[in-house]
Amino acid sequence: MNITRTIRRHLRGIISLGIATHAAIASISASKAIAQDLQTLNTWVIETQIHKSLPPYRLSFDGYTDDEGREYVQDIFIDKRGEQRWQPHQHLSNLEAWSHNLVGSGHVIEDLNFDGYADLRVQEFLPASPNIPYLYWLFNPTTRQFEANTALSIITTPEVNAETQTIRSFARVNANTYVWSDYQWRSGQLTLVREERATYNSEGQRRVVISELQGDRLVVVSDRFEAVD
Prior knowledge:
By secondary structure, the chain is mainly β. Helices cover 7% and strands 54% of the residues.
């Protein structure tokens, strides 16, 4: 809609002047509601440090909040701090992601490929299951751009372990089966190196099968039953 574009341009103008962005996190709500869609335009602003050698970066998440409180992101405008003002740097466009708390758990800025530079992930949506998918971007220190990474999209509800340089994915396959998958970067490729699968039965037990990467394939290294408290 034209009114949507107009209001967003107005918000971007306010942000570029530095108004209402003195805090690390700010939420600017447009007072114009779109009655037909019951949406309220929003821009969520986050300041962060990608690397100690780089200036601060500011991410402006443009989108809207629907009548059920879901916060949708359609564009991410990235600025970097200049000597006197913020300077436009990158635009991530044509997104359709939502969460219930964008400036909280809805986004995470952390090093996903363990190169010392912070990367970005944004919740894609919140499913009924605990398998939360994300959109991922890796920061390229050469171009200083965030680059979309689709290989990481296989990882849901991720946990990043910088010490072991591992990313753990969690998935509930069904009501009785849960899977934890550990990934590492090997020769620049995201590689599954370990999988733990727990299946619960009606006898108060769970079967835990652990597989590990040996050569070019996963091999079962443990298969046991455990009593469930």
